[in-house]
Amino acid sequence: GLAVCFRTNVWNIGAEGQLIVGAIVGGGVALLATPETSRGWFMLVLLASAAGGAIWASLTAWLRDRFHANEILVSLMLVYVAQQLISWVVQGPWRDPAGYGFPQSEMFAAASRAPILIEGTRLTLGSVLALVAAAAVWLLFARTVIGFQLKVIGLAPRAALYAGFSNRRALWFALLLSGALAGLAGGLEVAGPIGQLTSSISPGYGFAAIIVAFVGRLHPAGIVLASLVMALFYIGGELAQSRLGMPSALTGVYQGLLLFFLLACDTMVAHRVQFRRAAAI
How many domains would you assign to the chain? Predict the structure, then answer.
């Protein structure tokens, strides 16, 4: 989802907040299910999650469109609002009465949970949907008119304006689509491995998505491969913490180093570095 924004030159840094709000809205729908509810309810959970993320992203789009606010600052500040919102719902109206006071909701009914693809593993339908989303974004940019317009607006804003492309429409489309995909990820997270709402549903997936997008060169296929590498960082960080006693922040250090060296390589490729001797005086 972030690749859509970045290729349109719209800097959405708030995917973390959109993921959290998508999880809240999807989790609210999931809590309405009962043991007798049909499996089709899971699709409503996904739709609600995508809608929640899109609505949260629309706040950034509206402030940028209406008041020319900086989308980087707005989307980033909304992350903290979303974090406080989920803390409130799991400690207040949606707290599990049998949860011994822990900030969490009740466990979702089976109808609201993501189907397990391979028994005995944590591989759910969300993995397939992620690949479908990547393929859909590739088709958007490679085979559609709106995708071509987004690329032109991102690469050459003046040429896009001369061609009659609407920057305003591109802004709304990119942010709504990006927010919907982030919200969908949040819904799949709570309906999959977690199975309930908690105050810490995301250890920073939305921010890690920024690194994944750039490591993948903003191309859907590259992003899929980069996401696998990032998943290894998370899994390796957990193992290092549990078995070697290393700090949990180690994962963040590796992510930062990866982004740093990537940007350094881009800089050195785009600009020729020359070393010269100082002239003799």
Answer: 1
